[in-house]
From TrEMBL:
Pfam families: DNA_pol_B_2. GO terms for molecular function: DNA binding; DNA-directed DNA polymerase activity; nucleotide binding. InterPro entries: DNA-dir_DNA_pol_B_mt/vir, DNA/RNA_pol_sf, DNA_pol_palm_dom_sf. Gene3D superfamilies: Palm domain of DNA polymerase (3.90.1600.10). It is an enzyme of class 2 (transferase). This is DNA-directed DNA polymerase. Keywords: DNA replication, DNA-binding, DNA-directed DNA polymerase, Nucleotidyltransferase, Transferase. It catalyses: DNA(n) + a 2'-deoxyribonucleoside 5'-triphosphate = DNA(n+1) + diphosphate. Residues 1-88 form the DNA-directed DNA polymerase family B mitochondria/virus domain. GO terms for biological process: DNA replication. Its EC number is 2.7.7.7. Belongs to the DNA polymerase type-B family.
Length: 247
């Protein structure tokens, strides 16, 4: 069959090596220079994270957060997803503004409003985030080919199956997150598991955690949630306005 999309060069090279054909290219971005500015940073933090995890040091969570934040910041959306806080007494016309919210912080009142930037912030480097994801997909595809039917389910950052797929705490290797468990899958990012006969735990992308069991059992849920910044601006309403959500 044929399919189209946007792909990183490492994915395309991997596909070509395995017999795929590229029929046409609409556009591409490329460079003759190779950069790897985070190698030392990542290796140092990862070694610290492993050491802290082995000793039970709670700083493990800090190192994990720092490592995870690198990827998230590179791929962070711009536009109306950014906000700024301004002290309320410094805004003369805040009563007339639409799409703002007021918060209390350290005894002062602040207006939180969207920032519509004309360009992306310096830390948004979408290509780096794309390549990180692409490398993970290639590695995971290799695992799927290697272990075959032993892989029952996978996301970009995990693989689930009836056998342990060779785990290690080395950088870039698979780690054993949970097991053994009873696992049931209905669709991508839609499953449940139970460990040692304990209560079921549920996962459904797009459904709040406290309603995921109800969605599994009935196929539909209803709950109230506050509006996000972008949808508040489009609907010309205050941020954090509570609406009924049907799923």
């Amino acid at each position: 069959g044929e399919f189209d999309g946007a792909w990183c060069h490492n994915e395309l090279r991997y596909a070509l090596d395995r017999g795929y054909d590229i029929l046409s290219i609409d556009w591409q971005l490329c460079t003759k220079e190779t950069v790897n500015p985070l190698r030392g940073y990542v290796r140092d933090l990862y070694d610290r994270k492993v050491t802290a995890q082995r000793s039970g040091d709670p700083s493990f969570f800090i190192y994990k957060l720092l490592l995870n934040s690198i990827y998230g910041k590179f791929g962070q959306k711009s536009g109306d997803s950014f906000t700024k806080m301004v002290r309320i007494d410094l805004i003369e016309d805040f009563i007339e503004k639409v799409g703002v919210d007021i918060v209390e912080w350290q005894g002062e009142s602040y207006v939180v409003s969207p920032v519509c930037g004309k360009r992306q912030p310096p830390y948004v480097i979408v290509m780096w985030a794309a390549y990180i994801t692409a490398e993970a997909r290639v590695k995971e595809y290799e695992l799927m080919q290697r272990f075959g039917s032993d892989v029952a389910y996978c996301d970009t950052d995990c693989a689930i199956g009836p056998t342990v797929l060779g785990v290690s705490d080395g950088l870039g290797e698979l780690g054993l997150e949970r097991g053994p468990v009873t696992f049931e899958i209905r669709a991508p990012k839609y499953y449940r598991w139970s460990a040692n006969g304990h209560d079921w735990r549920y996962k459904k992308a797009g459904i709040r955690s406290q309603f995921q069991r109800d969605f599994w059992e009935t196929g539909a849920v209803s709950y109230y949630r506050p509006t996000k910044i972008g949808e508040s601006m489009k609907a010309n309403m205050r941020m954090s306005h509570w609406i009924r959500q049907l799923k």
